[in-house]
Amino acid sequence: MYRQVATALSFTSLVLGQQAGTLTEEIHPSLPIEVCTAPGSCTKEDTTVVLDANWRWTHVTDGYTNCYTGNAWNETACPDGVTCAANCAIDGADYEGTYGITTPSDGALKLNFVTKNQNGQNVGSRVYLMKGDDKYRLFNLLNKEFTFDVDVSNLPCGLNGAVYFSEMDEDGGMSRFEGNKAGAKYGTGYCDSQCPQDIKFINGEANTEGWGGTDGNSGTGKYGTCCAEMDIWEANSDATAYTPHPCKVNEQTRCESEEECGAGDNRYAGLCDKDGCDFNSFRLGNKEFYGPGMTVDTSKPFTVVTQFITDDNTDTGALKEIRRFYVQDGTVIPNSQTVIEGVDPTNSITDEFCEQQKTAFGDTNYFKTVGGLSAMGKSLEKMVLVLSVWDDHAAAMNWLDSNYPTDGDPSKPGVARGRCDAEAGLPENVEAEHPDASVTYSNIKIGAINSTFTAA
């Protein structure tokens, strides 16, 4: 996955550390989930969601002056990362009015793509599942299945409605880093396998060193924030993929060099496997499986089921397989079979599949170098659920739904990933043409294998 976070609005209180602001009350929207032991035997859990800190208004602790405006830090408040964290606060969020985040029904979350508001507009969002006011809800996915309903009918080419797990700290890094005074309550501590360098605060310090703007409201700094990531669902109405991304580290870790961050020519030397081992039905030869009117009909809602199979069928066993299937209109739909020369027919992710796929596509198998499914499984014991919608300033989402690389021959195995036009995902195009796009997630469940869904 090639992710660049779309940093949203930056607006613009003295104590040590990244502060929690008090100018806007922080109220977490409700998003209950269910925990299941057998079909029809599920218990509701009163969970909520919290907006990522990167989207929040960052201002001086003793007033309304911005610490970050556009794509630049306030040089007076932020002469360095430690001082900036002491001088600046991230504040509460107006989830619906500013960010277009709503809960249309119990157990449902709708994320709007572009939201007009009194400060201009917000683009995209990312939220985390909370258990209580101050901690993320941790998941152990081994020997479990994770299920949710999704409606991508209003999510066109170039957009990504993503559901995934990241190996974040339960408290957002508050206990590990004395500079972080905001914690999970304000959505701190993000990390993923791309080791993103556009995160404003990492390890309780502002990422000001080497910061440079990449577009009108985003930038990157010297440091990145790395951790293993399990992409359950990266999709729009025309393409989808699910992808494990293991890392050499087993907790949120700040990368401090281009090599550690896997930046530039160091992509296959970093702490994490940025490519992952993806299962994209279109890329793997079945071009009629997923899309409007197809086997999985994206013009209407459906259920996504992902199972994490261990070698001994226990919660402590080694991860050996990740299975996928769908449920729509009461019918269970098995995942598509691979139709690629050199790849044995399969519809799940195993180390053998990944080895064959990388060879067939001519891709570097950094997935294996980093530890493959075994390494991924160790991280799956303590994951935080992430739900988002975003556009891609780095690669226009071509890696998901078009030809990638864009100058590659689409007849060559692995290049064609979807039917979308390569320019559809350019931010200036998709933001202008589809500001009203949205994705809705609902009926989130976690439980024993074959416990979270029913079929007619």
Automatic annotation (TrEMBL):
GO terms for biological process: cellulose catabolic process. The keyword Hydrolase applies. It is an enzyme of class 3 (hydrolase). It catalyses: Hydrolysis of (1->4)-beta-D-glucosidic linkages in cellulose and cellotetraose, releasing cellobiose from the non-reducing ends of the chains. One of its GO terms (molecular function) is cellulose 1,4-beta-cellobiosidase activity. Its EC number is 3.2.1.-. Keywords: Carbohydrate metabolism, Cellulose degradation, Glycosidase, Hydrolase, Polysaccharide degradation, Signal. Residues 1-17 form the signal peptide. InterPro entries: ConA-like_dom_sf (IPR013320), Glyco_hydro_7 (IPR001722), Glyco_hydro_7_sf (IPR037019). PANTHER family: 1,4-BETA-D-GLUCAN CELLOBIOHYDROLASE B, GLYCOSIDE HYDROLASE FAMILY 7 PROTEIN. Belongs to the glycosyl hydrolase 7 (cellulase C) family. This is Glucanase. It comes from Thermothelomyces thermophilus (strain ATCC 42464 / BCRC 31852 / DSM 1799) (Sporotrichum thermophile).
